[in-house]
Design goal:
This protein has a two-stranded antiparallel ribbon with strand order 1-2. The protein has one domain: Ribosomal protein S6/Translation elongation factor EF1B (Alpha-Beta Plaits, 2-Layer Sandwich). The longest helix has 10 residues. It is of the alpha+beta class. The protein is built from two helices and two strands. Helices cover 27% and strands 40% of the residues.
């Protein structure tokens, strides 16, 4: 799943500088009847105009139950 996101970023002019797999972790609370999930953290540069496309990738992927995109100032 994470590789699909990394590939999408790279294909759309972005660059992933670091990708960390935190592995399977217990969720703080149940989400969509799930109590455990695999965590991934990607550090990347991406054209702000394409963030909507990236969010669409996250939203329509059934295997992603939660995501967060942060900007670095």
């Amino acid at each position: 799943i994470n590789q699909q996101i990394v590939d999408f970023i790279n294909k759309n002019g972005g660059e992933v500088s670091n990708s960390d797999e935190w592995g399977k972790q217990k969720l703080a609370y149940e989400i969509q009847k799930q109590t455990d999930a695999y965590y991934f953290v990607n550090y990347f540069e991406f054209d702000p105009q394409n963030i909507d496309k990236l969010e669409t990738q996250y939203r329509f992927n059934e295997n992603i139950i939660r995501y967060n995109i942060l900007t670095k100032n």
